[in-house]
Amino acid sequence: MDYTRRTFIKTAGLGVMASVLGGCAIAQKKMQQQPNFIVIFIDDQGYQDLGCFGSPNIKTPNIDQMAKEGMRFTDFYSAASVCTPSRAALLTGCYPERVGNLRVLFPNQKKGLNPEETTIAGMLKKTGYATACIGKWHLGHLKEFLPTRHGFDSYYGIPYSNDMWIDLNMKLAKDIKLREGMTLEGIARQTEKKKAKRNLVPLMRNEEVIEYPADQSTLTKRYTEEAVRFISENSKKPFFLYLPHTMPHIPLYASPEFEGKSDAGLYGDCIEEIDWSVGQIVETLKKHGIDKDTFVVYTSDNGPWDLKGNATNKVKGNMNRRIGGSALPLRGYKFQKWEGGMREPTVMWWPGRIGAGRECNEIAGTIDILPTIAALSGANLPEKKIDGKSIIALIEGREGAKSPHEAYFYRTEAVRCGKWKLKKNELFDLSEDISESKNVAQQNLEVVTQLKKLLDEHRDELEKNKRPCGIVDDK
């Protein structure tokens, strides 16, 4: 740069030099105008399981503060009630059926999100963003499908759910950390028997296993440390951080600093440690003076597990301590298309851009995150069709802003249009019956007919325009 400046001065004088520097200043200003994006994606969190969403026994002061300074979305949806398809939808802005219709992936499968799909990371990377995925991926554990093949500069985390096992053909790092008495010979024996133990999962960096089995009690803490490091290293340029936490998917783990501290059992411990993690991220943004340049979204992939004894369980003599999450006042759990399976506790925060203490009751969902980020960053939308819509008007709280969706679909099994929700042959007025307890189909046959038509058209359109998932062919 010094040589270039000297050359300009000698050959064209100070006037040209001023012009060059002015151009650099404009370019720098343009760079600063590109906001940072952080998406914190929780695994199996219940709708009620934040203080700002009414939890009676889980303390989440950091997320509650985000809600006070930002916006709480009460009618925000995941696109599926299970892990893999919900993640495919978030990252591509599409209903899962459009991008391969992936079911929950397991370590013995050779499928994944098609690398030809454009993710948020791939979209932003083209405009100069630094990108990182830290946490649970679950869109294909083979190298062809890992985050590093989907626009992420780096990846650190477990490749699928924490109740699964290791694919014994995965690439092991030369300096892999082996735990719980595991040895390379032991892994080889497992390979020969073609059998690995459940709940023992690999921790990866980029495309190699660096720890096996992963110490799950420290995952939330280590994800947070990685996130803080990434933010700090990229504080001078635009970045996208995708932070899909492993917890509170079962089996549940919390670090020693948080285990046994919540009034909601181990599940509550997990959520309270995640809340601590959110606090660390916000503090880091403020430390580097980029909090007003950063858009943060906190939401979940689907509702909580329906565990036996979910309401209460005797833990340390306290009958009010839950062993799982709560979707109250919603009906249903994970795996289901009731509200409790797909409506998620969501907070969006961006000081100076999102008004403090606001609440949005309009319909929106994870499929809207990609097009919203595209509009905010100036990135081009994917060339292939997506289903999400920009929700900038909702985020900014513009007067009269409405949901961009005429209808929102719960896979191909249910549909919501305004206050109405049709699930099979049952109709619910969610404005008066958030718990879906009263079927009003017979009193509103015309509405049922209209919604069935929308659902049929949606199903047919997806069938005609669906795209394939990725499959590794060993032949």
Structural class: alpha/beta
Number of domains: 1
Helix amount, in percent? 25-40%
Whole-Å distance between the termini? 51 Å
Average of pLDDT = 91
What is the level-2 CATH architecture name?
Answer: 3-Layer(aba) Sandwich
CATH topology: Alkaline Phosphatase, subunit A
CATH homologous superfamily heading: Alkaline Phosphatase, subunit A
Shape: globular
How many DSSP E strands?
20
CATH class: Alpha Beta
Rg (CA only):
23 Å
- List segments where confidence is low: pLDDT < 50 over at least 5 consecutive residues: 1-31, 310-321
Description:
With 475 residues, the protein is an alpha/beta fold. It has one domain: Alkaline Phosphatase, subunit A (3-Layer(aba) Sandwich). Helices cover 30% and strands 19% of the residues. The model is unreliable at 1-31 and 310-321 (pLDDT under 50).
Question: What attributes characterize this protein structure?
Answer:
475 residues, alpha/beta, Alkaline Phosphatase, subunit A, 12-stranded mixed beta sheet, 4-stranded antiparallel beta sheet, disordered N terminus
Summarize the structure.
This protein is α/β, with parallel strands linked by helices. It contains 11 helices and 20 strands. It has one domain (37-406): Alkaline Phosphatase, subunit A.
